Amino acid sequence: MGHSRPLIGPRGRDRGIGTEAARLIAGYGFEQLGLHRIGLHVHGHNHRALRVYEKVGFVVEGVRREARSRDGEWVDEVVMGILGREWAALSSTAR
Predict the structure, then answer these.
(1) Which domains does the chain have, with CATH numbers?
(2) Which of 60, 63, 69, 94 stands 20 to 30 A from 78 (CA)?
(3) Alpha-carbon distance 91 to 82, whole Å?
(4) How confident is the model at residue 17 (pLDDT cuts 50, 70, 90)?
(5) Which helix (H) or strand (E) segment is 78 a member of?
């Protein structure tokens, strides 16, 4: 049997898995649970996560400057959100 490639860590990056997971979660929230809005916070230096959420349709709503301490340094926290109507518009154009 061949070697499987791990999906977590550096070898799992740049394969679109995070983007697909975020789309599935947002879709479930809006389409199955009937949510009006989904929001999240992400560290400002986490450019991969920011890019994934923007691809899915999340919009930056603000930045909480130096809101968290991480490894002894203060980091910004980016607040993002997406509304059900925005998700529906994105979903209808993707079909």
Answers:
(1) 15-94 (3.40.630.30)
(2) 94
(3) 13
(4) confident
(5) strand 73-83
